[in-house]
Design a protein that fits this description.
This protein is about 75% helix and about 0% strand. By secondary structure, it is mostly helical. α7 runs antiparallel to α8. The longest helix has about 70 residues.
């Protein structure tokens, strides 16, 4: 698919190709997957989230849960990102996907100002043996946590464990990007078929609308569950502050009682 070939070269053009594919074959999971991934790569987080939810309903896979969680972060909802990581779907991920999700959760904790919790999430990660690229991503996330906490000396020491090439990749992700060669004739052939496909595309759009309506109740149920879990996360993140304030209040109350006893004496 042209969208996949263009992703690293021209994300916006890849997105446009994916949108055209959705108009033609919106009920095909890999088409909606391409639409979701290209939307994510261009910062269209709400659209990416919607498309990847559709993919999950179409094929039952939660392989893109980390990207969905990162979309929630991009929309300013870190609690929902953490809630996704606590969902039953997270247990279906393989090792590498689980690591990617943990990296997102760490970032979400950092968004909430919970640097210690963010570091704890990363410390619990076990990177699959031999996956150096993923290990470097975990190191990159740890660097972000350390720098956010003002621990620049530790961050510098961790950065020193990387090779010069790895450090250059962190500084500029495009350094190690793959260049994909693709055939423009395929696109030309596709464009020549536009007129003949318009009728069938319209029928597919109608079918897609029916399919979306059928899955609406299920999506609403998922959203309600996610919101409930996000509320729990939000409450937990504020408990620390309220507990500290409560402790101070109790201490002040204790001092007042002692002073009262002394007055009675």
């Amino acid at each position: 698919m042209a969208a996949g070939q263009l992703m690293d070269i021209d994300p916006e053009l890849a997105y446009q190709h994916a949108q055209e594919a959705v108009r033609r074959a919106g009920r095909v999971d890999i088409v909606r997957e391409a639409a979701g991934l290209t939307a994510y790569s261009t910062g269209r987080f709400a659209e990416a989230l919607r498309e990847l939810r559709t993919v999950r309903r179409l094929n039952g896979s939660s392989e893109h849960l980390a990207i969905m969680a990162d979309c929630e972060r991009g929309l300013g909802r870190p609690e929902r990102a953490i809630a996704l990581a606590a969902s039953p779907e997270a247990a279906t991920l393989d090792e590498a996907q689980s690591v990617e999700l943990a990296i997102v959760v760490s970032g979400a904790r950092l968004d909430l100002g919970e640097a210690e919790a963010a570091e704890a999430v990363l410390a619990a990660i076990t990177v699959p043996k031999g996956n150096r690229e993923l290990a470097v991503r975990v190191i990159e996330a740890r660097l972000g946590v350390l720098e956010a906490a003002g621990r620049t000396v530790e961050a510098a020491a961790l950065l020193a464990t990387l090779t010069p090439k790895e450090r250059a990749t962190l500084a500029d992700p495009e350094v190690d990007a793959d260049v994909v060669v693709f055939d423009l004739q395929d696109d030309a052939a596709t464009d020549s078929d536009d007129a003949s496909d318009e009728g069938s595309s319209s029928d597919e759009d109608d079918a897609d609308d029916d399919s979306d309506a059928d899955t609406g109740d299920e999506a609403d149920s998922d959203e309600d569950t996610l919101d409930e879990t996000a509320d729990i996360v939000r409450a937990g993140s504020t408990t620390g502050d309220s507990s500290s304030a409560h402790s101070d209040t109790e201490a002040d109350h204790g001092d007042s009682v002692s002073a009262g006893d002394e007055d009675e004496a």
